[in-house]
Amino acid sequence: MNQKYITIEEGEDYRTIAGKMTKLGYKMNHATARNILLSGMRKFVMNMAESLGRPLTDDECNMLVMRQDIHEVLGDILPLCITEETKSCPVAK
Amino acid sequence: MTPKTNTNEEDIELFKKYQTTKVLDENGKLLKADIRLRNDLAQRNAKLVTFVINKFYSKKQKHKELRSDLLQEGHLGLFDAIDGFKPELGFKFSTYATWWIRQSVNSYLLDQEPMLHIPSHIRTARNKLFNLAKERSTAFKDIGKDMLEELGMTEKMFASVTEAIKTKSWNVRSIDEPLNSSIDPHALRGRDKTLRDIIPNNALDISVNIDNKRIRMAAKEAFAKLNLREKCVLLERYGVDCSKIVAKENVK
């Protein structure tokens, strides 16, 4: 469980993400992309746990974020979030 | 009980006698008759029912299971035959009654088969059409006007039959029916599998469904609290195009 890196089968690497984000107006390099991802992931997991009525400590959160299965599940959940988010967006349609 | 002697002449005399007791309405429908005489005639020809059932309805397992029912239905057919038999035409009663017995039994069997009720005239029409199509080696859909005319069938009736076939009501089966349709004592005790056991249930359990809903709501809320940059990086990491989110933010 004490692994350092998480790999996911689909999706982009940090350099590609950084390139895309730069194009969208958020200038960044691959390291920044990684840092943003990790902090975003942490926030997301913390917020979610809070919404489900079981707030996490920082240690618990760090442990969860380093789990491969959590990353895989997030891959299933995130597309649902974007669908909900963009439902009312006329441009996105 | 010793079986009664049953000679043709005696029967004819009895039928003639029975005919004199019959009272018909203007449509030829039987209103009144000597029931005792009819019962006597039925008793004298009861063996005919057994003979017909043995000859035509003894091979299939389903018929074996329903034997006692078929015998009863056959007797009802025999009563109809007694009511309609005309001895003056010179035919043997057994020739005439066999058809009535078979008609009664067939009608009963057809009523048993489909789970959804199909009117008997539609069933009869369907059978006629299938037989004709088979005879001519044509497909059911290729049945034309000329063939309908030959059967004396209207296009409306043909449409009804086609509709009945489309609904596949002939193929309707109970979900609790044992897969082994024979009468198996184990099947009746629930040891045999039914359709319910083998049809996969794709619907999620209610509790799982509620949990999923909660998780989805929580994810939605958690995601909404992130800033745009984080949202985009997260989505891109999982291969989801984030341009929609950015477009929405720009609209705001």
How would you describe this protein?
The complex is a heterodimer of chains A (93) and B (252). Chain A is mainly alpha-helical and 93 residues long. Chain A has one domain (14-85). Chain A has four helices and no strands. Chain A has helices spanning 14-23, 30-51, 58-65, 68-85. In chain A, helix 1 (14-23) crosses helix 2. In chain A, 18% of the residues are buried. The model of chain A is unreliable at 88-93 (pLDDT under 50). Chain B has 252 residues and is mainly alpha-helical. Among the domains of chain B are: 1-112, Four Helix Bundle (Hemerythrin (Met), subunit A) (Up-down Bundle); 206-251, no CATH class. Helix content of chain B is 63%, strand content 2%. Chain B contains 14 helices and two strands. Chain B has helices at 8-21, 35-44, 46-56, 61-65, 67-84, 93-112, 120-135, 145-151, 155-166, 185-188, 195-198, 206-224, 228-237, 243-251, and strands at 23-24, 30-32. The N and C termini of chain B lie far apart (99 Å).
β-strand amount of chain B:
under 5%
Task: Describe the main β-sheet of chain B briefly.
Answer: 2 strands, antiparallel
Beta-strand level of the residues of chain A, as a percent range? under 5%
Distance between the termini of chain B: 99 Å
What distance separates the N and C termini of chain A?
41 Å
| Major sheet strand order of chain B | 1-2
Helix content of chain A: 55-70%
What best-fitting shape of chain B do the alpha-carbon axes yield? Answer: elongated
- The tally of helices of chain A reads 4
**Named CATH architecture of one domain in chain B:** Up-down Bundle
Secondary-structure element order of chain B, as H and E? HEEHHHHHHHHHHHHH
Question: Helical percent range of chain B?
Answer: 55-70%
CATH topology of one domain in chain B: Four Helix Bundle (Hemerythrin (Met), subunit A)
Subunit organisation of the chains: heterodimer
- Largest chain interface and its two residue counts? A-B, 40 and 34 residues
Question: Largest sheet of chain A, if any?
Answer: none
**Low-confidence spans of chain B: pLDDT under 50, at least 5 residues?**
none
Shape of chain A: globular
Radius of gyration of chain A (CA) equals 15 Å
Structural class of chain B: mainly alpha
